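Co-fold these.
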Amino acid sequence: MTSEQRLEQLREKAWQEGVVPGRGVDVVGGPIPRKPGYYGQPVVKPPVWTWEVPLYFFFGGIGGMSAVIAFGAILFHQVEIARTAMWIAAIAGAVLSPILLIMDLGRPHLFLNMLRVFKHRSAMSMGAWILTAFGTSAVAGLIALELHARQIFPGTLGQLLRLAAGIFIFGAAIFGTLLATYTGVLIGATTIPAWFLHRILLPIHFGTAGLGSAAGMLELLGHRIAVLNFLGFYAAAVETTLLIWLSLDKKGAANRAIHEHGSGWLIRIGEVLNGPLALILRFFGLVPFAAISFLIGALVSRFGWIAVGKVSGADPEAVFASQR
Amino acid sequence: MIGEGIQSTNQRKHSFVKDHVEVGFFTDPSVCIGCKACEVACKEWNHVPDDGFNWSGNSYDNTGHLGASTWRHVMFLEQDRQKGNQIVGSPSLGNGDGEDPFRWVFLSDVCKHCEEAGCLEACPTGSIVRTEVGSVLVQNDVCNGCGYCVVSCPFGVIDRRPSPLPDAGGAFKCTFCYDRQKSGLVPACAKVCPTESIVFGRLDDLRARANERVQHLKQNGYGDAQLYDPTETSVGGIHAFFLILGEPEAYGLPPKPQVPTIYLKSAWMAAFATAIASIIATLLGFAFFS
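Predicted complex below.
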C-alpha cells in the first residue's frame, strides 16, 4: 500500500470515528526507522576511487608480471622475448601505472608526498614504494638490455651492460610480482566487507590475472611460443579455480554485493572470460582468442571489484553481518 | 562537572597539550536536546563549508552522516520504545491501556579518535598523525587525497572533499579542535553544548564519569543504556565514546569495529604465495618448453 493510499484511509477513518488508533503511515525514511541501521545510512564509507584505479590494477598487473617473464627469458637466453616483455613492463608499469595513480589523487600535484614516509602497515605506502622501485629497475633494465642487444658498446662495457641488465631485470621481476599482487592486499585490508572477506582470494586473483595478461599480451605481439601458452594455461586454470571458490564462498548479507548485485556480475563475467573460456579456447589451440578473452576478463573483473566495493561499503547490513 | 558552572571542564582553560594529557569526548544522548549547536559551532570555528541544504525526511536530521564537511552530526532516532520511566502517549488515542511507547533520542556523532586508528595506519603520506593529547589529526597541507583512509576507517568518518568545495581533494574529519586546544581552549562543540551532553576532559576522568552515568541511568529505568567504547576489538577503545540507549546498529555504529590492519598478514601471505608461484611457473615454463 502506498503511503498516499494509507493517508486517505486514515482521513476516512478520522472523519467517521473521530479518532485514529495506530501509528499512522510508514513512509520511507520515517518517522520510525524502517531501514537497517540509522535510516539506511552507510556505516563505513564506500571508496571514492574512480576508473583510474581499476585500470591501474590492470596495467600494474601486466607490467609487473611482464618483468617476471622477461627475467625467465633472460635466464634461458631468449633475448627477443625479454626485450618485448621489458618494453611492456616499462610502458605499462613504469609509465601508465604512475600516471593513472597520480590522476586518481584528489591533489595530484602533491603525489611526491607518497615518498615522505615508509609505512609497512599501510598497503598504500608499500604500493607507492613498490611502484617506485619497480619503475626504476624496469626502466634501467630496459635501457641496459636494449643497449646490450643492439651491441652499441663492444667488449667489456657490453659485458657489463649485460650484467646490469640481468640485475635490474631481476629486481624488476621481484618488485613486479609485488606490484601485481599488492593491489589485492590494498583493497583486502580495508573495512569494506566484500573486500576484506576475500582478502586471500584478491591477491591470488590480481597476481595470476597479471601473469596471464602479460603472457597473453606477448602472444598478441607475435611471440607464439610454448612457454607463454603454458603460462596462459596455468593462469586460466587458477582463475577457473578462483571462480568456483568465489561462487561457493557465500557469506549471506555480508558479501551479498558479490552474489546478489549487478556489480557482482562484472566480476563473474570477468572470471568466466579469463578462467574457463580462456582455458577452452587455449585447449582448442585458438591462442590469440584465448589471450584476448583473458585480457578482457582481467580488465572487467578489476572494474567489478571496485564496483562491488562501492555497493558493499554503502550497505549497512553488510557491515553488521560481517561483524556478527 | 554538570552544575559546576565555569569550573566545568567544558569551560575551563587547560594545558593538556603542553602536559601531554590524553583527552576525549563523552557524548551522552540522555541529556542531548538536539539543538545542533555543536554542528554549527564546529562549522563556524573550523571554516567547514556547507555540503548542501537537502531535506532528508529523516526526523529532524538533515545532516545525514559524518563526512569531509560534517565533523559533528546530531542523530535523531525515533523509536517505539519507552524512554526511562517516562509515561508517554495519550490514553484516548491508544488501544485503551494508555501505553504508546515512543522515544526521541538525539546523539551527536563525531570522529572516534581510535586508540588503533585505521586512517592513521593507512595514510601513505604521513599526513595523519597522533597528537600530544591522543587525538588523530589530518595535516591538510600534506594530504594528497589518495583516498585510502576513507576505506580504512571502521566508522565511516573520514572522507575526501569533492569539488567545487574549498580545499577540495583532501581528506577531512574532526580535528578535535587541535588549534583551540593548543591555546588552552576547549573544542568548539563541547564549549557550546548547552546541556553538557558533550563533555570534554581527561580520558580517565571521562571513562569514570561515563560508567557512573550508565549505572545511574540503569537505576532510573533506562534498562538498555550502555557505553559504546569498543575496547575488546582491534580498535582498542575510542577517545570519543558514547552512551547509547539500545543497540549500536540503530545509531549506525558498527557492533564490532575492526582496524583493517588485522587483515594485512593473511592478505600479504596470499600475495607472497602468488608472487612465488608466478616466478616458479615462469621458470618451469622456460625450463621445460623452450
